[in-house]
Structures
1.
Amino acid sequence: MQTDLTIYKDTPIAKGVNIQLRFEFYNLFNHPNFRTVVNDLSSGNFGKVSAQTLPRWWQVGAKISF
């Protein structure tokens, strides 16, 4: 299970003009999310996980609206 969190703040900077600051966190608790499992019985690695998605990551954004 992947846990995401978004925090944002709307701030007026002038009459009719607002700015929104956003902080978004993905996979907040760094839970492994497996992508590729070997499913070839003859490979000798059957059932082995060979890749996973990115670990914890985040992004920052800003939006001005008027």
2.
Amino acid sequence: MKRPIHLVLGCLLLAGCATTTIESRKKERVAAYSALTPEEKELVDKGQVKVGMSQDAVYIAWGPPSEILQSQSGSNGVQSIWLYYGTTMQETRYWTFRAVPSQDHLFVERYLDRDYDPRDYVRAEIVFVGGKVASWRTLPRPTY
């Protein structure tokens, strides 16, 4: 009885870890990839982004964004901002206590311990105006 449960849990774990690749996204958006110029296809195949690229080209090169924001300015009109998140581990240090045996009795010792917690951060930002890349930037991993 345990074996089927382990099999189901393993499949769910693997399905949750699935990530898309450039090749799978090219198959997903065949028509969009076919419509790209040879230069854009070369960039997309390398996972690179360039000003002037379409949203489809960026999607194929970098995958789906973590978040999409919309804004409007007087001169540029409607902007779409794609944010890509990364994850880093943040260290937290704290004082705690532990029991230490000593001959016939225990005493309490204070010591410095640490935990590591995952923290999301914006690792890249792409601004689209009129469906084309107007600007993009990558951001460094934060140092906490």
3.
Amino acid sequence: MLGIIAGILVPVHIPLEWGKYFSVALLAALDSLLGAGKAVFEGRFNLGLFVSGFITNTFLATLLTFAGDRLGVELYLAAIITFGVRIFQDLSIIRVYLFKRLSTAVPQGVA
């Protein structure tokens, strides 16, 4: 929550050349966060696994983007598609867990 507030209040200007790198790193980080949320609901969250996945995914996605830039190939698109699909899948699973949890919290016949 503090990060969101700081992001809104502190203007950050990212150079245009870094746009691809930043967007891919942001998607990788979001994928890791949603994966961690899904793991919490499934009762298998591991902090070490989360941190290592967060760092590894973000680094690898950025490295893939850098290699693609050097080769003249838009490899960052592969990372965007992959992370995008995983983000929507994880979000869908989390939504189902939340719906089940909330629907069992409300007594039947009360809505």
